[in-house]
Amino acid sequence: QLGKAYLRLGDMDKALAIAGVLTTSQPDSDRWYALEGAVYEAQGKTEDAIAAYEAGSAEVPDSIGLQVALGELYLSQDRASEAQTLFESLTKANPRSVDAFVGLAKAHIAQAEDLRALRFDWANSALQQALRIDPKSVPAQATLGDLMLAYERPADAAQAFEAALSYRTSLEEDSTLRTKLAEAYAVDGRWDRALQEYQRVAIANPTGIGPQMALGNAYRQAGRTQQALAHYQQINRLAPSYPFAYIKQGEILDELGQANQALVAYQAAVTAAPDSADALFTLGSAYRRRDRTQEAIEAFQAGLAIDPNREGPLRALMELQGGAVESGE
Fold first, then answer.
1. Sign of the C-alpha dihedral computed for residues 190, 196, 200 and 202 taken in this order
2. pLDDT tens-digit map of 302-319
3. Which pLDDT score, from 0 to 100, does residue 155 have?
4. pLDDT tens digits, residue range 129-146?
5. Which of the four, 59, 181, 324, 327, has the lowest number of CB atoms within 10 Å?
6. What is the rounded distance in angstroms from the CA atom of residue 133 to the CA atom of residue 152?
């Protein structure tokens, strides 16, 4: 309990020290390996977290929690084949584990481009088994929605996300599921319902840039241009240093034929975030479209000084410099 308390408080060193002592003194308890892995995950040390879960799984082979955590990390690191092997073994050893069958489905979804039709059948079979064990499983219903979206069946995806929402237990879970549901409605062309869900998430997360941007993007995709523009402006009142909302404003103003105002928005993005290569590249492209060659060159050079490995901006800069030399001659 003390180790978890330190983890919740953000004191990673103390939490890790406790986990280290207890994994040595009580190697047959999965709790301490789980704590150690969770600390490493919180620190962004994925490989160390994997090592902790692997060590725990070896010491406590009947721990479902450690193996599920390990499988999820494999999936997050694009190691879907390893995750599949782990979850297949886990479902055989624990045929009543919902988490094991959901993990197996996720592994198949992650490999959907290989054996596409079979992957759908295998993932769907695993999820149906999970739902037979627990018909109210939110992870199973949500993953079924993910499966249907991945296979371009948005109406079925929406139905699964709706079912997951009916069983949700937390606000965080609610926002995640509503965002997925909104995406399914949007893909299915049901924009009124999609916008309703995006709006609900934005209202529940008034200071969250991600939910607010998702709503602005949805307005734009639904053809509600003025609402999108107003919402991006609202985002920059909420977060004046966030460059991407300014960039979106510029894009819309360009589409509306308001080139001067669009350029002001692109310039505002750079002023707000001068270290953002994306803002500088966007401004460079805007100058280039307006035949303001020298200013475009300077913007691309400034962006490449921050992020020198961007092929598109580098190619644009070389073309601009070549054109400038020819004009000078």
1. positive
2. 999 999 999 999 999 999
3. 98
4. 999 999 999 999 999 999
5. 327
6. 27
pTM for this predicted structure = 0.86
Residue type, 85: T
pLDDT at residue 27 tops 90: no
